[in-house]
Amino acid sequence: MEEKISYFVLREKAVPEVLLKVAEAKRLIDSGKAVSVQEATEAVGISRSSFYKYKDDIFPYHENTRGKTVIMVIQMDDEPGILSVVLKSIADYHANILTIHQSIPVNGIASLTLNVDVFEETGDVEEMVKAIEELKGIHYAKIIARE
Q1: Which pTM does this prediction carry?
Q2: Comparing C-alpha atoms, which of 84, 75, 74 is closest to residue 115?
């Protein structure tokens, strides 16, 4: 049975300390202030197993996403037509693609980085990401930054 994904918005004081530390460790890695998971987890005082257990479950909330730029990373199979389907999905949400960078595929998997302008017509950006993630050939899609 497929797990239903639900999201909640909590005040920081309601979030368990371990989750806040996982978020901080991810920030250290993403910013380059820590070069490894080991270094980041030691800096924030959690185990690597805690980091790996929760790393895909906590993200900072950015309230102002409409009329802003969203940077997404997508991992996908290296098959003809998949990029076209991803781009059509973004267009269906009335978002505007600013830049596209696709890596050279390794072992049949390509990484795609997109800068996307989102507007009020786009609606829920998380819904757009979820729709992309559900496309055939997509391994994962995630927002890595919002401006």
Answers
A1: 0.56
A2: 74
SS3 state of residue 95: coil
Candidates 3.30.70.260, 1.10.260.40, 3.90.550.10, 3.90.1300.10; correct CATH number of 68-146?
3.30.70.260
Which residues are CB-neighbours of 140 under 8 A, at least 6 positions away? 74, 75, 133
Query: What letter represents residue 121's amino acid?
Result: E
Where in the chain is CATH 3.30.70.260?
68-146
Alpha carbon 88 to its chain's center: 19
Q: 131 burial class (0-12, 13-18, 19+ CB within 10 angstroms)? A: middle
pLDDT tens digits along 20-76: 999 999 888 877 788 899 999 999 999 999 999 998 888 776 554 445 889 999 999
